[in-house]
Amino acid sequence: MPNINKLLNKVNQASQALKSAKGIKAKIQQAGYKGGVNTEEVDKLQEQAEENRRKLEERRSSLDKQLSSVNKANTTAKKPPELSMTELQYPMQGGYDYYVVFETRTRKPRAGGNFLSKETFSIALYLPEDIVQQSTTTYKAEGVGAIARGVDSALNKKEGEKVDGMLDEAGNVIKGFMNKLGDSMTGGIRNLKAGMASNPMEEQFLEGITFRDHSFEWEFMPRNSKEAIMVQKIINIFRLAMLPDTFAADKESANENFFNYPNVFDVHIEGPEGGVQDQIEGFLPMVLKDMSVSTFNGNSEGLISDGEKVWPLATKIDLSFSEIKIMSQEVYNEKVGPKSMRASANSVRGPGGMVDSTGSPSLLNETSGSTDEQHSGKLWGQDGSG
Questions:
Q1: Which residues have a Cβ under 8 Å from the Cβ of 288 and sit 6 or more positions away?
Q2: Is 341 in a helix, a strand, or coil?
């Protein structure tokens, strides 16, 4: 099919040409010049031009409609599938300046259907008294003996000195070996009398970085049945997002022999502009590893009722998350460190800046439903609505 925009341009040019022809005739008549000009022929040309203009207008209208349909189809094709977002909040009436917001990403949909694969949830909970964030850089102590050190030392010498250096270090190694042999034969007395001991010559070798863990704790005490139902929904969504669903490798099989990965969470602190959320560390995408629920929180007599149903007056939950992305120096500077410090950190990066501000990518992150970008928005249900 020809390019519609090009066809429209040609139609517009032809239409403009017809308008120009009509204008030429009008100018001739205004000047009162008739000699040598057959006005009847001009009139016929004008009538033909008008007919052609009418057809061109119809053609342009048709092309406009086609172009509109093509653009609409392209726009629809480029749009990602729209996901519904359900917002949950405790306490529903607000009353807190800061909230921790947990947003679920969609998990992979499977044949037969599964929860949390086509909808996302945003859970806003009041800022707890403490947020525990733990990260560790691990090292391992390894002995680097005289032989290895000697070889390294000799290799670092100038070309003409390498052989002599190797011989010197070999002699030192042999003496050390003989001393160790003699000391072992005397049960350690030899070195004890000499007032010396073998140096293990250990070094700390970097092994890696552990994934950061985060612990949260809340106590829910609903004021009415509506808020009690809200608490139930919040606990239910955390449980569903934490647990994998099962599916079969063969759609026709009744044996569901595979786990589907649970949902990934994006977490951020929400509050007034310029608030404490800009002064503390943020979070990387994470998964929920452990969840405990104290149904009555030590008081089974504490109940709330709407006249038909009864709920616990107090419920406590403990959540333990683990991030799915390793936090290297550049990731901390770009994604995790306090926002108020990132500008100053950027100014002392040195020549060339960072090579990669994202660090090593997470394969699990690529399979989840959205990006690392934290979302922000107004809290839902502060007036008790929803």
A1: 238, 241, 242, 262, 265, 319, 320, 321
A2: helix
Q: What is the DSSP string of 285-320?
A: -EEEEEEEEESSTT-TT-EEE-SS-EEES-EEEEEE
Structure tokens belonging to residue 8: 């429209």
Lookup: tokens for 152:
């390294």
**Which token pair is 266?**
């994006």
- Please, which residues bridge with residue 42 across strands? none
Greatest pairwise CA separation for the chain in angstroms: 138
Chain segment 134-167, per-residue pLDDT in tens:
778 888 888 776 656 666 665 566 555 554 555 5
H/E run at residue 149:
helix 146-155
Indicate the pTM of the whole model. Answer: 0.63
Measured CA to CA, the distance from residue 193 to residue 203 in angstroms comes to 28
**What is the token pair recorded at 195?**
């007032």
Dihedral angle over CA of 325, 327, 333, 339, nearest 10: 70
Give the amino acid at 316: K
Positive/negative CA dihedral, 307, 309, 312, 318: negative
The structural domains of the chain, with segments of one domain joined by +, span 4-78, 84-136+211-325+361-367, 139-208
The dihedral formed by the CA atoms of 49, 55, 60 and 63, expressed in degrees to the nearest 10: -150
CA distances from 125 to 92, 122, 262, 371, 377 (A): 9, 10, 21, 22, 14
If DSSP codes are grouped into helix, strand and coil, which group holds residue 7?
A: helix
Secondary structure class of 342 (helix, strand, coil):
helix
* pLDDT tens-digit readout, 29-50: 554 545 555 556 656 666 776 7
